[in-house]
């Protein structure tokens, strides 16, 4: 039995793919649970959030 | 009420005879309530009022004695009488200074600072926090505070004041008494400070800063409650003139027109309202009595990141809608409502919860046993039987670890 400290991220599957791509550059995922859940390292959470935000921002357009 | 004037306790049966049958239930409810408050004393079959309560209540009603529960009006007439307008203007000015300071702290524009006492209270209540360079910065709690009605804001601030009073070792009873006394005072009358206790005299200064009362000089022996104070316990609008000096009739009801194309017109010349709107609207142009702007993704996202929720924005737009808008049904255009909510959802695509992942259980039974325990605690956020692992929140970790340790210890003992 093992207990690993981490942060559980709940998101849609599209966003999870972005996370997986990001993970290839710099690994932060501890365990890939299922389509909507990933456990990541607790101290990486802030950085991941920033990067996801930046990534999503690229996909939005203003009139 | 009749009991008030009866000197001796009365037979409950006699009392029951006063009440008609339909009102029986109300009567019994009232009796048990009074008993719980220790206002009535019940011995055997007799019912009487608590003597102290009886004495003071009689006094309060007849206005006799030297009680001061409704404040003591100043003896002499003030030489220069203070007009209602002046009091209102003062209250509005003070109150808006506080709010405006809060709003503008977020945007970095300088505005008139309220007094130290007010700043301290704002800091303590968590509405503002010291940010970079020690300057006060508004918090998300503060933003939400700004969107409330003045009445709610006032009470929130006063409640904070009560907490603070406790820490400052002020007599809470006196503080409360003074606040309630203020709320029963008559607007435009001057009251004497002489009957006030030491604590209450200290409060005068604070309340002056909030705009609840007005004094000519700090040492003045008389004070005037403003409309903010006298409407504390009533449902009247606390700031009748808060929405501007000119043409306030329409503005008191609302001033915002929001179109389906996200354009927003606000008929106001009030800098505070403009500043509040600026929290979630991109303002385009400004005329003497009109501000034009639009609700767009950037402006709403900025508001959301400040901690304002979509519901609060919509709520604000609804309560301050222009009378013209009230003809529409629903009041705020559905497209705009939905879009604001969508923008909020977009921000919350990623949800994170800290905790522990439990995995590599030696057997299925082991896994189910621990999982059941964790489920009873209500800390399981995710579980998967096939993978034989589950994720539990931070709070549950100590308990679960203890549980597993006890189990392994017991298993070792047996084997």
UniProtKB/TrEMBL annotation, chain A:
<comment type="function">
    <text>In NER, TFIIH acts by opening DNA around the lesion to allow the excision of the damaged oligonucleotide and its replacement by a new DNA fragment. In transcription, TFIIH has an essential role in transcription initiation. When the pre-initiation complex (PIC) has been established, TFIIH is required for promoter opening and promoter escape.</text>
</comment>
<dbReference type="Pfam" id="PF06331">
    <property type="entry name" value="Tfb5"/>
</dbReference>
<dbReference type="GO" id="GO:0006294">
    <property type="term" value="P:nucleotide-excision repair, preincision complex assembly"/>
</dbReference>
<dbReference type="InterPro" id="IPR035935">
    <property type="entry name" value="TFB5-like_sf"/>
</dbReference>
<keyword id="KW-0234">DNA repair</keyword>
<dbReference type="GO" id="GO:0000439">
    <property type="term" value="C:transcription factor TFIIH core complex"/>
</dbReference>
<dbReference type="InterPro" id="IPR009400">
    <property type="entry name" value="TFIIH_TTDA/Tfb5"/>
</dbReference>
<comment type="subunit">
    <text>Component of the 7-subunit TFIIH core complex.</text>
</comment>
<protein>
    <recommendedName>
        <fullName>General transcription and DNA repair factor IIH subunit TFB5</fullName>
    </recommendedName>
</protein>
<keyword id="KW-0539">Nucleus</keyword>
<dbReference type="GO" id="GO:0006367">
    <property type="term" value="P:transcription initiation at RNA polymerase II promoter"/>
</dbReference>
<comment type="similarity">
    <text>Belongs to the TFB5 family.</text>
</comment>
<keyword id="KW-0805">Transcription regulation</keyword>
<keyword id="KW-0227">DNA damage</keyword>
<dbReference type="GO" id="GO:0005675">
    <property type="term" value="C:transcription factor TFIIH holo complex"/>
</dbReference>
<keyword id="KW-0804">Transcription</keyword>
TrEMBL record, chain B:
<dbReference type="GO" id="GO:0001671">
    <property type="term" value="F:ATPase activator activity"/>
</dbReference>
<keyword id="KW-0539">Nucleus</keyword>
<keyword id="KW-0234">DNA repair</keyword>
<protein>
    <recommendedName>
        <fullName>RNA polymerase II transcription factor B subunit 2</fullName>
    </recommendedName>
</protein>
<dbReference type="GO" id="GO:0005675">
    <property type="term" value="C:transcription factor TFIIH holo complex"/>
</dbReference>
<comment type="function">
    <text>Component of the general transcription and DNA repair factor IIH (TFIIH) core complex which is involved in general and transcription-coupled nucleotide excision repair (NER) of damaged DNA.</text>
</comment>
<dbReference type="GO" id="GO:0000439">
    <property type="term" value="C:transcription factor TFIIH core complex"/>
</dbReference>
<keyword id="KW-0804">Transcription</keyword>
<dbReference type="InterPro" id="IPR004598">
    <property type="entry name" value="TFIIH_p52/Tfb2"/>
</dbReference>
<feature type="domain" description="Transcription factor Tfb2 C-terminal">
    <location>
        <begin position="338"/>
        <end position="404"/>
    </location>
</feature>
<dbReference type="Pfam" id="PF18307">
    <property type="entry name" value="Tfb2_C"/>
</dbReference>
<dbReference type="GO" id="GO:0006289">
    <property type="term" value="P:nucleotide-excision repair"/>
</dbReference>
<dbReference type="GO" id="GO:0006366">
    <property type="term" value="P:transcription by RNA polymerase II"/>
</dbReference>
<comment type="function">
    <text>Component of the general transcription and DNA repair factor IIH (TFIIH) core complex, which is involved in general and transcription-coupled nucleotide excision repair (NER) of damaged DNA and, when complexed to TFIIK, in RNA transcription by RNA polymerase II. In NER, TFIIH acts by opening DNA around the lesion to allow the excision of the damaged oligonucleotide and its replacement by a new DNA fragment. In transcription, TFIIH has an essential role in transcription initiation.</text>
</comment>
<dbReference type="InterPro" id="IPR040662">
    <property type="entry name" value="Tfb2_C"/>
</dbReference>
<keyword id="KW-0805">Transcription regulation</keyword>
<dbReference type="GO" id="GO:0003690">
    <property type="term" value="F:double-stranded DNA binding"/>
</dbReference>
<dbReference type="Pfam" id="PF03849">
    <property type="entry name" value="Tfb2"/>
</dbReference>
<keyword id="KW-0227">DNA damage</keyword>
<comment type="similarity">
    <text>Belongs to the TFB2 family.</text>
</comment>
């Amino acid at each position: 039995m093992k207990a690993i400290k981490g942060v559980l991220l709940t998101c849609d599957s599209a966003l999870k793919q972005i996370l997986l791509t990001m993970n290839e550059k710099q690994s932060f995922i501890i365990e890939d649970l299922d389509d909507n859940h990933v456990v990541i390292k607790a101290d990486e959470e802030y950085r991941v959030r920033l990067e996801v935000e930046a990534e999503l921002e690229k996909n939005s357009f203003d009139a | 009420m009749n009991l008030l004037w009866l000197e001796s306790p009365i037979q409950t049966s006699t009392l029951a005879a006063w009440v008609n049958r339909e009102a029986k239930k109300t009567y019994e409810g009232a009796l048990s309530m009074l008993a719980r408050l220790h206002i009535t004393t019940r011995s055997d079959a007799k019912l009487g009022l608590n003597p102290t309560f009886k004495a003071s209540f009689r006094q309060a009603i007849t206005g006799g004695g030297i009680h001061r529960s409704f404040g003591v009006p100043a003896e002499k007439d003030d030489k220069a009488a203070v007009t209602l307008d002046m009091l209102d203007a003062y209250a509005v000015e003070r109150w808006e200074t506080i709010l405006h300071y809060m709003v503008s702290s977020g945007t970095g524009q300088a505005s008139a600072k309220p007094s130290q006492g007010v700043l301290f209270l704002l800091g303590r209540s968590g509405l503002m926090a010291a940010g970079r360079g020690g300057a006060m910065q508004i918090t998300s709690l503060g933003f939400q505070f700004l969107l409330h009605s003045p009445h709610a804001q006032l009470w929130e601030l006063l409640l904070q004041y009560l907490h603070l009073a406790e820490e400052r070792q002020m007599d809470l009873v006196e503080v409360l008494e003074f606040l309630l006394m203020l709320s029963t005072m008559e607007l435009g009358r001057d009251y004497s400070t002489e009957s006030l206790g030491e604590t209450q005299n200290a409060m005068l200064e604070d309340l002056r800063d909030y705009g609840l009362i007005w004094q000519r000089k700090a040492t003045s022996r008389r004070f005037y409650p403003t409309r903010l104070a006298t409407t504390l316990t009533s449902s009247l609008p606390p700031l009748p003139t808060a929405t501007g000096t000119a043409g306030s009739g329409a503005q008191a009801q609302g001033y915002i027109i929001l179109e389906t194309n996200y354009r927003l017109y606000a008929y106001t010349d009030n800098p505070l309202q403009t500043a509040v709107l600026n929290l979630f609207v991109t303002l385009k142009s400004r005329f003497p009595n009109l501000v034009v702007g639009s609700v767009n993704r950037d402006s709403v996202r900025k508001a959301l990141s400040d901690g304002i929720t979509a519901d609060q924005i919509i709520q604000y737009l609804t309560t301050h809608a222009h009378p013209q808008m009230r003809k529409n049904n629903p009041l705020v255009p559905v497209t705009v409502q939905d879009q604001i909510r969508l923008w909020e959802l977009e921000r919350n695509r990623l949800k994170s919860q800290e905790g522990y992942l439990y995995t590599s259980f030696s057997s299925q039974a082991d896994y189910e046993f621990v999982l059941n325990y964790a489920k009873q605690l209500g800390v399981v956020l995710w579980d998967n039987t096939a993978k034989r692992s589950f994720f539990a929140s931070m709070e549950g970790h100590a308990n679960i670890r203890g549980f597993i340790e006890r189990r392994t210890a017991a298993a070792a003992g047996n084997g």
